[in-house]
Write a sequence for this structure.
């Protein structure tokens, strides 16, 4: 390759790198869809659980330090160290949680490792289905005489609205 | 001179496509190398960053915030309480950590059932890890009763206190840490309880 070819190769490499950065930027700025608010039903009991309390419960359950970070519209991040080929990188799982009818649904939006964001669609099916465990855990912790009618999140924690269905 | 000029023109027309071809080849190769190299570089840097980054510290709950809040609606309490066989009872939550229980019942006077209304006013007091319900006033059909007759609610109060203790113990077991009541407020139609966790145990 002559001098001109080398010069264009350098220009191409810079352009290629910029395209890559732009693509990563586009992936990161894609906002996850908002969870639909549930139908308004006057609750019998309202339970609020703080972010700190839920982080401690998650750490106890997973057996390693885990930090839960909630935001409005059901957005949440779970940060923990995940063993991967002898390494333990800090992995942030970005997901949303909310009500769909009378069911709690949790949806994985992506995983952040360092500067990289991996969209949920690129992740294996098992990992996507693993997030449904959160909804199932909340459901199993709910007393049998109560049904969940609402779930909202704020930066402080989660508020769950319950309706008594006992007799 | 004319021949030399013709020759020059011939050389330019032969080398121009080659130079353009090398430029395109170089540019495409460069883009490919930039994409692949950049991707590898970013992956490596990201993993290094993720491995060396510390987990965000678990910040303690701010002093003015509760770990757990439970709000119970008055309408629910009225559906939840067990109704007496020979009458009806209702709970009216009052501001200032008080509640009024109104029970319509009947007493037998000379073989006849006389309908009466018993009204008990209670104070709800947080007491360490539980709530204590204390009777502060009793009225029957609008008349004040002497204090020694106020024992009619004693059995019910003991039962409610016992159930509250059990409910709070169950809640502590669910959250996996001892909890202590840090706030109790009532409004016209709801009771709100605030708890804080003490993973190391409540002193």
């Amino acid at each position: 390759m002559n001098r001109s070819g080398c010069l264009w190769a350098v220009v191409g490499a810079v352009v290629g790198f910029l395209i890559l950065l732009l693509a990563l930027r586009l992936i990161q700025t894609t906002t996850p869809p908002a969870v639909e608010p549930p139908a308004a039903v006057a609750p019998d009991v309202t339970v609020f659980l703080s972010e700190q309390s839920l982080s401690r419960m998650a750490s106890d359950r997973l057996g390693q330090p885990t930090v839960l970070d909630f935001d409005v519209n059901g957005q949440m991040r779970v940060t923990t160290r995940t063993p991967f080929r002898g390494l333990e990188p800090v992995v942030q799982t970005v997901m949303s949680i909310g009500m769909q009818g009378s069911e709690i649904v949790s949806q994985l939006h992506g995983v952040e490792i360092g500067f990289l964001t991996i969209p949920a669609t690129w992740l294996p099916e098992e990992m996507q289905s693993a997030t449904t465990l959160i909804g199932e855990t909340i459901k199993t912790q709910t007393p049998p005489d109560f049904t969940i009618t609402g779930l909202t999140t704020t930066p402080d924690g989660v508020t769950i609205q319950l309706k008594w269905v006992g007799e | 001179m004319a021949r030399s000029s013709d020759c020059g023109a011939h050389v330019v027309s032969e080398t121009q496509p080659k130079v353009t071809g090398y430029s395109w080849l170089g540019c495409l190769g460069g883009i490919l190398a930039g994409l692949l190299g950049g991707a590898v570089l970013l992956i490596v840097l990201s993993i290094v960053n993720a491995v060396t980054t510390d987990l965000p510290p678990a910040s303690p709950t701010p002093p003015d915030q509760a770990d757990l809040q439970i709000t119970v609606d008055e309408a629910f309490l009225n559906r939840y309480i067990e109704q007496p066989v020979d009458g009806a009872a209702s709970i009216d939550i009052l501001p200032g950590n008080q509640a009024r229980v109104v029970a319509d019942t009947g007493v037998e006077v000379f073989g006849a059932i006389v309908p009466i209304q018993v009204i008990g006013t209670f104070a709800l007091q947080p007491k360490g890890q539980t709530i204590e319900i204390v009777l502060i006033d009793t009225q029957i059909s609008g008349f004040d009763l002497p204090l020694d007759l106020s024992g009619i609610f004693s059995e019910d109060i003991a039962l409610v206190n016992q159930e509250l203790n059990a409910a709070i113990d169950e809640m502590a077991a669910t959250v996996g840490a001892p909890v202590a009541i840090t706030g109790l407020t009532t409004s016209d139609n709801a009771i709100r309880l605030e708890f804080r966790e003490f993973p190391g145990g409540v002193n």
